[in-house]
Amino acid sequence: DAEITQSPRHKITETGRQVTLACHQTWNHNNMFWYRQDLGHGLRLIHYSYGVQDTNKGEVSDGYSVSRSNTEDLPLTLESAASSQTSVYFCASSEKLEGPDTQYFGPGTRLTVL
Amino acid sequence: GQNIDQPTEMTATEGAIVQINCTYQTSGFNGLFWYQQHAGEAPTFLSYNVLDGLEEKGRFSSFLSRSKGYSYLLLKELQMKDSASYLCAVTDSNYQLIWGAGTKLIIKP
Prior knowledge:
The structure holds two protein chains of two kinds.
Chain A: E1 4-7, E2 10-13, E3 19-25, E4 31-37, E5 44-51, E6 54-57, E7 64-66, E8 76-78, E9 87-94, E10 104-105, E11 109-113
Parallel strand pairs in A: 2-11
Antiparallel strand pairs in A: 1-3, 3-8, 4-5, 4-9, 5-6, 7-8, 9-10, 9-11
Chain B: E1 3-5, E2 9-13, E3 18-25, E4 32-37, E5 44-49, E6 53-57, E7 60-65, E8 70-75, E9 84-91, E10 97-99, E11 103-108
Parallel strand pairs in B: 2-11
Antiparallel strand pairs in B: 1-3, 3-8, 4-5, 4-9, 6-7, 7-8, 9-10, 9-11
């Protein structure tokens, strides 16, 4: 069965360190998204990609970067982790090139920055 | 600005009916999604509305009024497993999803 996976599921790091969160999907979807979820807030879009070599900034992109070298993967890098980046991170994917489409979510990564 | 409003928390009784409301103000509208999220898990798709009216899917129904910027999710014959957060999300003019903070639904026996 097709799926979307994230690793690690839990991560504790220190302020200033670089951290990379992995996202891998086997749906063969064109579109991939990274969100963060914090108490009292809706899901907030960090970065997204509509295909290989395409990346775009979302609402809360400062301090984060992504790259899309193949269809299956969209790793999220925190350049220099800050305590404000403690959050739960979700990766999602969707198929359509145009128009609204259902997004399928990975299980999430809980990141703690000390 | 763009804004999605939902109640923070609701409580209902097993076997009863509950209605979760969502109001929105966004730059453009290309449909509204409802997702379910159990604690510690990923959001999962429940429904999508783009035209006014009621969409029924088993015990769950979703209603949309575009003129009022309003939607609701109706859950019938509540079961304990329906205890979860329910997320409302609107697709704006750029086809970006704008998410509400979610409504935590607590089901009591």
